[in-house]
């Protein structure tokens, strides 16, 4: 039997940006797009052109390679034509290939919040869809408060869907905006909507205010919708959105879905979802949920107690799917198992070949686990993993050695009487037999150290001329006077490629310096620089 195609629409960069405490920079968005492309989603909604400086810059060029790059916006305002509405035109004129326009589908909201008639609302929506379609963009309508609207005025909610389809919308997305609808209600309403629109033109956009966004989404799929909207790790306004990191494995691994539906993801991409989930948490500078379904550190952890004898005979009885299918690993508390397959996959991704029975692999596994117990997290810092792996495997070239470094901060008045803070860094680096000392000033100790390290690297200086520090994030892993700090540094070179390195230490400057050192080392590996000694 041919399986029906389901389409994954990611709204992390727009819905997720409404999460309390999260602000995306342009560089954040670019790096998250790379994670989403690795995962293999079909659509990436990047934000709202015209709404702010960050989104304007992000939509100045196409940011995706494979996924459909999508811009979010509102339908035209009442009293304006589509051509004369600046907000709509900003969306249509962006570098996106598709648009997702939001319009209210609840008669109560239309008359009270917008202050217009429900028929005028339909005309505004239809004109906006037509204008977007005419510009050559794949067009979607997000039906805000749809399920509440259906309960309030079923006939109008269905007219809304039919009008959008007739105007040329490729997808009409049913949104449970306040997250209060129950799974059984979702299924019944979705089935009713199909009296005016086929399921392969319908999507679901569920919020998690009752903790049922994933369940509501799955109910909608079984009832007929074929586009799924959600975010990485379920981030979003208030309680969040449907979690794609939970939905995707469920759809691909559970027979009730896998036998009927197909996604645009390969098994290899599914096996990368744990890394992507944790790397995303690192990007937004927060800890990963240990008990997150499928990808959490405890998702396949079993405590040897009452189940000890049964575990010894059949550990798989306590796992609803094999952990390796989602890139996670089994953890029996009295003795850790697995890990080798994950390491081999990661090494292969970076072109490092090693046999599974090679004793060096065991040493690398022990080293990674020991370092992770101290606060390192290599899911979000692939470049640091490459440096560590080559060091443990004995294949890391001896490019240079840091003899010492020093950073000092001085607060003083300048010649104009202004109070300023100056940071100076001194770094001594040995390249072969040459001892090089560099001094630099920066707007902080990390910036000063970065500039000093790259100021003179002897024979390797030509290889790092295009290297720049793009982003810098700090997390305090445990509080108190003995706090451990983890630093994540994003670097980029002239090719446009970015990579992440990390450092961990009770000392913020020491952790930062470790991350900077590994960034330089990775860059030299990347360009194939020849070491002075093998």
Automatic annotation (TrEMBL):
Annotated Pyruvate carboxyltransferase domain ranges read 6-271
Does the keyword Amino-acid biosynthesis feature in the UniProt annotation? Answer: yes
Q: Which reaction does it catalyse?
A: pyruvate + acetyl-CoA + H2O = (3R)-citramalate + CoA + H(+)
Sorted keywords for this record are: Amino-acid biosynthesis, Branched-chain amino acid biosynthesis, Isoleucine biosynthesis, Transferase
The record's Gene3D superfamilies line, in alphabetical order, gives: 1.10.238.260, 3.30.160.270, Aldolase class I
> What does the record give as EC number?
2.3.3.21
Q: Which family does it belong to?
A: Belongs to the alpha-IPM synthase/homocitrate synthase family.
NCBIfam families reported for this sequence: citramal_synth
- Name this protein carries in UniProt: Citramalate synthase
What organism does the UniProt record list as the source? Devosia enhydra
The root-end lineage is: Bacteria, Pseudomonadati, Pseudomonadota, Alphaproteobacteria, Hyphomicrobiales
């Amino acid at each position: 039997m041919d399986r029906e195609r389901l389409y994954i629409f990611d709204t992390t960069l727009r819905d997720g940006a409404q999460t309390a405490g999260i602000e995306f920079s342009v560089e954040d968005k670019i790096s998250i797009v790379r994670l989403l492309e690795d995962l293999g989603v079909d659509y990436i909604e990047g934000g709202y052109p015209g709404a702010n400086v960050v989104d304007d810059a992000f939509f100045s060029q196409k940011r995706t390679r494979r996924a459909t790059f999508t811009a979010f916006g509102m339908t035209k305002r009442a009293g304006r034509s589509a051509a004369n509405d600046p907000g709509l035109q900003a969306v249509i004129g962006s570098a996106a290939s598709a648009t997702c326009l939001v319009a209210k589908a609840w008669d109560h909201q239309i008359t009270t919040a917008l202050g217009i008639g429900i028929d005028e609302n339909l005309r505004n929506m239809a004109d906006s869809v037509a204008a977007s379609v005419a510009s050559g963009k794949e067009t979607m309508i997000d039906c805000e408060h749809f399920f509440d609207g259906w309960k309030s005025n079923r006939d109008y909610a269905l007219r809304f869907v039919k009008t959008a389809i007739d105007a040329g919308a490729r997808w009409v997305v049913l949104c449970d905006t306040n997250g209060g609808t129950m799974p059984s209600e979702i299924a019944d309403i979705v089935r009713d909507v199909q009296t005016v629109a086929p399921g392969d033109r319908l999507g679901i956009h569920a919020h998690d205010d009752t903790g049922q966004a994933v369940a509501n989404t799955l109910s909608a799929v079984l009832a007929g919708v074929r586009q799924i909207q959600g975010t990485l790790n379920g981030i979003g306004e208030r309680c969040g959105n449907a979690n794609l990191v939970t939905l995707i494995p469920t759809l691909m691994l559970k027979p009730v879905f896998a036998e009927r539906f197909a996604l645009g993801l390969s098994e290899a991409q599914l096996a990368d979802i744990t890394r992507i989930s944790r790397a995303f948490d690192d990007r937004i500078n927060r800890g990963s949920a240990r008990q997150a379904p499928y990808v959490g550190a405890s998702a396949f952890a079993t405590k040897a107690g009452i189940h000890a004898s049964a575990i010894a005979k059949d550990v798989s009885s306590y796992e609803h799917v094999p952990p390796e299918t989602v890139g996670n690993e089994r953890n029996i508390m009295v003795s850790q198992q697995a890990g080798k397959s994950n390491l081999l996959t990661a090494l292969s991704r970076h072109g490092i070949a090693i046999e599974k029975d090679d004793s060096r692999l065991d040493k690398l596994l022990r080293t990674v686990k020991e370092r992770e117990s101290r606060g390192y997290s290599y899911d979000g810092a692939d470049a640091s993993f490459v440096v560590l792996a080559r060091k443990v495997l004995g294949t890391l070239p001896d490019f240079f050695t840091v003899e010492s470094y020093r950073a000092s901060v001085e607060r003083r008045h300048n010649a104009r009487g202004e109070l300023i803070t100056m940071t100076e860094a001194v770094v001594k680096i040995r390249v072969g037999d040459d001892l090089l000392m560099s001094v630099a000033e920066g707007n902080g100790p990390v910036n000063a150290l970065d500039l000093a390290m790259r100021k003179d690297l002897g024979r390797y200086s030509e290889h790092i001329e295009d290297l720049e520090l793009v982003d810098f994030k700090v997390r305090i892993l445990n509080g108190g006077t003995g706090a451990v700090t983890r630093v994540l540094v994003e670097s980029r070179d002239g090719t446009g490629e970015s990579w992440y390195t990390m450092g961990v230490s009770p000392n913020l400057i020491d952790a930062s310096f470790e991350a900077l050192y590994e960034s330089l080392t990775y860059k030299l590996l990347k360009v194939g620089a020849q070491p002075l000694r093998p």
